[in-house]
Amino acid sequence: MNTKSRSRKKIPDDELIDLYLETQSQEHFSMLYDRYSDKVYSKCLSLLKNDASAQDAAQDIFLKIFLNLAKFNKKSRFSTWVYSITYNYCIDTIRRKKKEKTILTDDENEKETPSEEVEDKEMLEMEIERLSYVLDKIPEADKVVLLMKYREGLSIKDISKAFNKSESAIKMKLKRAKNKVRKIYGESFSEMMILFICLLSGLL
C-alpha cells in the first residue's frame, strides 16, 4: 500500500521519517511539516511574544529539523524531539537578546531549600488567564519545563531526554518552578483583590 492511498493522519511519525530518509521524497517531509508547523509556531509565539520573531524562529526550527532528521534516534517520541528543538531554539534566542550567560542550570549542583511540595492539582486549578500572567513573571527556564509538563503532557523522562539532564534535576526544576508560581500567584492576586475591594468601598 503506497502512502497516497492512506490517510495522512494515520501514518505514524516514525514511518514518515523512514520513508523520507529512504526515498528523499519531499512529500513525506511535507506531511511532517503540516502536522507540526502550527504547533511549533504557537510555541514560538508563546515564548518570543512577537509574531515576526515567531515566524522566523519556526522557519529556522524546521530547517534544523530537516537537516538533522537522520540523527533522530527514536529514543523518544518525534513530537518530544521537535518540541525540545523548539524550546531550546527559543531559549537561545531569548538568552541572546538578554545577554544572559545561561538559562538552564544544572540543578543537581544546587543545595535544596526545604519547601512544601506544590501538588499538580493546585497548578491545574489556577485560572488560565492568571496563570498566564504569572508564567510571564518567572524565569524562562522555569516557564519552559512547566509548559512541557502541564501543556504538552510530557513525562519527567521525556523532559530529561529533551534537555539531556537527569530526571532528578528535572524534578527539582519543576518543584522550584511550581513554588515560584504559587508565591507569585498568591502575592499578585491577593494584592489585586485588596485593591479591588478598596476601590469598591470608595477608600481610594
What labels would you give this structure?
204 residues, Rna Polymerase Sigma Factor, Chain: A, Arc Repressor Mutant, subunit A, 9 helices, disordered C terminus
Question: Could you describe the 3D structure shown?
Answer:
The protein has 204 residues and is an all-alpha fold. The chain has two domains: 3-98, Rna Polymerase Sigma Factor, Chain: A (Orthogonal Bundle); 107-200, Arc Repressor Mutant, subunit A, CATH 1.10.10. It is built from nine helices and no strands. α4 (78-98) packs antiparallel against α7. The longest helix is centred in the last third of the chain and has 34 residues, at 167-200.
Note poorly predicted spans. 106-110, 200-204
CATH C-level class of the largest domain: Mainly Alpha
Order of helices and strands: HHHHHHHHH
CATH names the topology of the largest domain as Rna Polymerase Sigma Factor, Chain: A
Number of strands: 0
Q: Helical element count?
A: 9
Number of domains: 2
CATH architecture of the largest domain: Orthogonal Bundle
CATH superfamily of the largest domain: RNA polymerase sigma factor, region 2, helix turn helix motif
- The value of Rg in angstroms is 20 Å
How is the biggest beta sheet arranged?
none
Outline, from the CA principal axes? globular
Q: What is the SS-derived class?
A: mainly alpha
Distance between the termini: 73 Å
Chain-averaged pLDDT: 76
Strand content: under 5%
What helical percentage do the residues reach?
Answer: 55-70%
